[in-house]
Amino acid sequence: MSQSDTSLLAWDRVQPKLPEKYRKIIQKMQTGGHLGYGDWTGQELATSIPGAWKRLPEMERLGLIRRTRKRQCKVTGEYAWGWELA
Fold it and tell me: Which pTM value belongs to this model?
């Protein structure tokens, strides 16, 4: 069994216990990065998941996602952290 297989098995066990907003954020991140960036800013996620940006630090502490780099957000035009699945 490969590492990706065990990761999928672990995800299947954890997913039902996660809050709905966490699941929506993870599902959105699985579709790929915003406009081809490979990651998402909080405001880019919030365009389809209201309040998503508030949950990102919590999800980082749980090991679900990680920060990537600071880049220009396509929603606000400001520099912000990009996030990706861990």
Answer: 0.75
Q: How many other CB atoms are found less than 10 A from the CB of residue 46?
A: 18
H helix or E strand, kind and range, residue 30? helix 20-30
- Report the domain count for the chain: 1
pLDDT tens per residue, range 5-47: 665 566 556 566 788 999 999 988 888 766 666 789 999 999 9
The one-letter code for the residue type at 53 is W
CATH of residue 55: 1.10.10.10
25 φ, ψ (degrees, to nearest 5): -65, -45
Domain that holds residue 58: 3-85
